Amino acid sequence: MLPFVLASVLIAGALGCGVPPIQPLTTRVVNGVDAIPHSWPWQISLQYLRDDEWRHTCGGSLIATNWVMTAAHCINKQNTYRVYVGKYNLVEQEAGSKAMTPEKIIVHEKWNPIFVAFGFDVALIKLTEHVTLSDTVRLTCLPPAGTILPNNYPCYITGWGRTSTGGPIADRLQQALMPVVDHATCSKPDWWGPGLKDTLLCSGGDGIVAGCNGDSGGPLNCKNAQGVWEVHGIASFVSGLGCNYEKKPTVFTRVSAYNDWINQVMIDN
């Protein structure tokens, strides 16, 4: 069955990244829970205009003051988008949040929506203006190129995606512990299978916690040895059998496979 698509770094480092002023709750919760407001301050809501109403479609990560990283499958050239930074509750007006206009959107040139599992599910959005960093708006760090996390490494998915397969999207930003599943395990025949590309990253798979529609493009947040958060994954797809199907972990674009592409796009644009 076909997978079900979940509908530069130097600059970030210089400005400081991956250290939220409001610390997230990182107890080893099983199910997703409301995040502490603004504790993932690089999380953005990508929204599109439909019937004169802005609607959340995907997540994303603020990686520089005028650049957002999301998934290629989140982008439809026919749509008008905006990027909302500093959001926690999608249905409330919030101090410190701001809707930003994209100047340009660059989708990876090798992305093919017909072959989602081939990878390259990454896109960058350049904003028309720089955001002002604050307690509610911060940059995330990206991992060093080629970084591979070990099996069961604790990471957190965040987003406003559906709280269950076919259910409603969340109003408040959700977070859930989703440990990494290494490639050797995730590519087993009864998991995602040997065709799983090594540019993809699996997380979860316990049949309980998973990404779902609306989480697409959002981050898999993992803390490094220095206590700094890095976004190691961009939510890409889940099983067509359901968002939280056992041994079918949420699959992310592995960010550390695309450092060169990300940096080059930011330099060229």
From TrEMBL:
PROSITE patterns: TRYPSIN_DOM, TRYPSIN_HIS, TRYPSIN_SER. The keyword GTP-binding does not apply. It holds the Pfam family Trypsin. GO terms for cellular component: extracellular space. Residues 1-16 form the signal peptide. One of its GO terms (biological process) is proteolysis. The keyword Plastid does not apply. Keywords: Disulfide bond, Hydrolase, Protease, Serine protease, Signal. Residues 29-267 form the Peptidase S1 domain. One of its GO terms (molecular function) is serine-type endopeptidase activity. InterPro entries: Peptidase_S1_Elastase_sf, Peptidase_S1_PA, Peptidase_S1_PA_chymotrypsin, Peptidase_S1A, Trypsin_dom, TRYPSIN_HIS, TRYPSIN_SER. It comes from the Eukaryota. This is Elastase 3 like. The gene is ela3l.
